[in-house]
Specification:
Layout lengths: L27 H11 L7 H14 L3 E7 L3 E8 L21 E3 L5 H7 L3 E3 L6 H4 L2 H5 L4 E8 L5 E9 L6 H37 L1
Antiparallel strand pairs: 1-2, 1-6, 2-3, 4-5, 5-6
Helix pairs in contact: 2-6
Length: about 210
């Protein structure tokens, strides 16, 4: 006796279905503790905004960020856009109407950089199924990305420096070398900030004794 063929609906092949679009980040709790120790990653700092401006100028990109990441969100402690009151929204807009500094962890490419602990260069995100499906492509219009990890002297990946464009960009090896060099420069700046903080704490303890 023949059994009727089961009627299974046709499902088109989706190359992104089996891909983990946002990587697991087991280091996040330790990172949060380290960022709290450094006193960074939860509020904007003029020094980081200045560094984001330097990132944009050096790479000739319209948007640049100094980004710190916890378990659920990304925080742009440094942010540069050509016209902040008209910039693309990177997160929930505050009452001022300026672009927000908060973005969900499943948006963008910095979480990949943090977990990989390696720089990531995407000349055209649409060339990579894993990255083309990211919400920032449709919601913001990002077409190219370049980012490098901020790895401090304890070995902790604190976050990233990154630049994005709304058009494909041929970053090349020169771009990769540039973003890695800028990341190293900012890490040294963070170390200097930590040293100064420890010196002030030591001075206060000395004065109190």
């Amino acid at each position: 006796m023949k059994h009727p063929a089961s009627r299974v609906p046709y499902v088109p092949y989706d190359p992104t279905r089996r891909l983990l679009l946002t990587p697991e980040d087991n280091e996040a709790p330790a990172r949060v503790a380290r960022l709290r120790e450094l006193g960074i990653g939860s509020s904007p700092l003029p020094a980081f905004d200045d560094f984001a401006r330097k990132l944009a100028s050096t790479t000739r990109t319209p948007y640049a960020m100094v980004n710190f990441i916890d378990e659920k969100r990304q925080y742009f402690a440094g942010l540069y856009a050509p016209d902040l009151d008209k910039a693309v929204e990177l997160g929930p807009a505050p009452p001022s109407g300026r672009p927000g500094r908060v973005m969900a962890r499943d948006h963008g490419y910095c979480p990949h950089v943090v977990v990989r602990r390696k720089a990531l260069v995407l000349e055209d995100v649409c060339d990579y199924p894993r990255f083309a499906g990211n919400p920032v492509v449709d919601e913001i219009g990002i077409r190219s990305y370049m980012g490098a990890p901020l790895i401090d002297r304890t070995g902790m990946t604190l976050g990233t420096v990154c630049v994005v464009d709304l058009e494909p960009r041929p970053w090349g090896r020169e771009g990769l070398a540039t973003i890695k060099s800028l990341a190293a420069e900012l890490v040294e700046q963070i170390h200097h900030m930590e040293d100064q903080q420890q010196q002030r704490q030591g001075q206060r303890q000395s004065d109190a004794s």
